[in-house]
Amino acid sequence: xxxxxxxxxxxxxxxxxxxxxxxxxxxxxxxxxxxxxxxxxxxxxxxxxxxxxxxxxxxxxxxxxxxxxxxxxxxxxxxx
Length: 80
Fold this sequence. Notes:
Blueprint: H1 3-12, H2 17-30, H3 34-44
Helix pairs in contact: 1-2, 2-3
């Protein structure tokens, strides 16, 4: 990840410009470590940007509900 990618990801995460500059300076001193950047974001009051807990949050996918089609997509004509 480059510093330009880091800046873009922080802009997408709705981080203010002054905080982006602080985090870029922090990353230039300490290297780009997404876990440390997320910790700094939490200290600044933001949500994590680089946290990917999708594997742990897939517990809802184990439900036993299936797909039900209520309305057919095409009109069907029946002869009586």
